[in-house]
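Bench log. Compound arrived from synthesis this morning; before running ITC I wanted a structural hypothesis for how serine sits in the protein. Inputs:
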Amino acid sequence: MSETILVIGSSGQIGTELVEELRKIYGNQNVIASDIKEPNNSQEGPFETLNILDKDQLLSIINKHNVKEVYLLAALLSATAEKNPEFAWELNMNSLFHVLNLAKDGIINKIFWPSSIAVFGPTTPKQNTPQSTIMEPSTVYGISKQAGERWCEYYHKKYNVDVRSIRYPGLIGYKSLPGGGTTDYAVDIFHQAIKTRQYKCFLNESSTLPMMYMPDAIKATIQIMQAPSEQIKIRSSYNLAGISFNPKEISDEIKKHFSDFEIFYEEDFRQQIADSWPQSIDDSHAQIDWNWHSNYNLETMTNDMIKNLEQLLKQNKI
Ligand code: SER
């Protein structure tokens, strides 16, 4: 039986797009999608319902499909985690241990696990945040990601586990919706601009955050996983930079397409989370170690988002 890839959390924001891309490269049958939620119809290929906290269920899926590579995308994001800290810790940490232990036991060969800009905190330098710097995260999500990074590096050093990771910035795409993050406004703003020409933003106008267009994020994910092992010198997680902007800047860019677009600001608890994160990221290690570079800027991302969302709206898909 041929070896396959398992994507855990395949119905989520990243999973939806990653499964599609991996299937183009490796073939539909060789990429197993899995999620606690049913997939949307556009995914063609094997799907397994999986509660990642159920270790036995995970092992039986891995054995059934001869899985050798796992992308673990299931997690509670920053805003949701603040509402349910204990469950967030349980889900974000135990899912990682389940997968790391399968690699330690030689059942799977390679793991991708996402970290986040949320590993940084209020005491971290905010501009051009270096790879190695002060990390005192103040959110449950950030604490779980930072601890996860330490465990990934530990399993690599101690048990030679081939685990690879990226600190994603906020991710923006038109194919799927984010759920429960602080950076979600940057997706929602496009949907509202297209549908109603108005957006009420839960962050203030000057909240600059590191962001990235989804095609760049998917490219980085596949690139780090395909790189020869010796090029992956950092086994905690790599800084990754795309585009830094604030709500005012993105709304000005949207106004170039819809001159009547209006934005209002009404901060909520997510403002404090945003204020604790960096504004821009230094990703020179990813550039040097595995030739990373991003393709999109604010203008090209906005053009592409609006073009594609308008198409989806015409087809009644959003
Ligand atoms: N986009 C995520 C969030 O806002 C950060 O990793 O929670």
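What the model suggests: The CA atoms of residues 68 and 107 lie 7 Å apart. The pocket of serine is lined by residues 77-78, 116, 118, 141, 168, 170, 181-183 (CB under 6 Å).
ITC booked for Thursday regardless.
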